[in-house]
User: What shape does this take?
Amino acid sequence: MALIVKKFGGSSVANAQRVFNVARIITEDYRAGNEVIVVVSAQGDTTDDLIEKAREINPDGPSKREMDMLLSAGEQISISLLAMAIEKLGFPVVSLLGWQAGFQTDSNYSAARIKRLQTDRLTSELAKKNIIIVAGFQGLNKYDDITTLGRGGSDTSAVAIAAAVKADLCQIYTDVDGVYTADPRKVKTAHKMDEITYDEMLELATLGAQVLNNRSVEMAKKYNVELEVLSSLERKPGTIVKEVVKMEKMLIRGVAKDANVARISIVGLPDSPGIAFKVFSKLGQKKINVDIILQSVGRDGTKDITFTVPEDQAKDAMEVMEEVKALYNCEKVVCDEDVAKVSIVGTGMETHPGVAATMFEALYNAGVNIEMISTSEIKISVLIDKDKADKAVEAVHNAFIQ
Assistant: This one.
């Protein structure tokens, strides 16, 4: 007997037919003698529909607390419908909201972090031989307010449960059958990997691969939770994410694209010690994630700094930069949202010279101009024009992976 945590995304439970398909997957494992805890996202486009309803009421944007109250309803619908389907199939089941399952979070509404997970209710329901269906993406803060965990929060919920109850496996079901070397819808030569390391998956997730949420991978690595990414529509093995894998003869494990990027430049900053700290500490105070950073050589007592942020944080970042501009009497602040980030990831690249040259040559041959570059031991990222991103991914993928 094994204890298995399963997570199903919104597309997997988008309609009644798919809800029953998921119910059968769950009950097959339960019938085989396993204990099963399931985490579910909101059905289909429910979250987007709820956001649109909020905009109809308040186009200027409601408070994040009230948005969390609204968006948490999507998962409540999913868990109850799935529980009903499992009941109809004749199996014992109970559905739990995030707070009922023991999720306690901080008070950062819309992007809360899990502080602790009390497993008493989960343990109790397992002892009753119940299948447990948990609403992903949500928890409760110290004020007894419902909070949501932000983008990809259901993945994080599933991994947190798997870590807390010491599950044997955490399966993440999606509309693809595993982790591919690139988006198979865009790159015909992309192929599925049987295994990938936590570090490689974390980089791919952070850099735009939408199979797994990066926070969930980070948590899985920290608590050594073995993940499997697989399809809810096809019954076949997926991709295992774990600490050590059987290394294939692949220098590059994957190519990722992130179109949710904005480039911000502030021109004419004082060329003095500590100025970069002052600029980025202000961004940090607003919890704005900064990625690629480029600083020019000082001239005439000034310098320029260019950096990238997620596109959905660009407005907040520009407000901060306008404050900096006024404070230091800078020349101007510019924001460009017509950019994308393309990255290659692979633990093998650090011991192989010429990887960057191969990537840059592929982009040159494809007629793609590089605007910014960022590197680490296992990844190289470039910033390019957004309208050339798919072309760039295919060119780079074909240069490394056949």
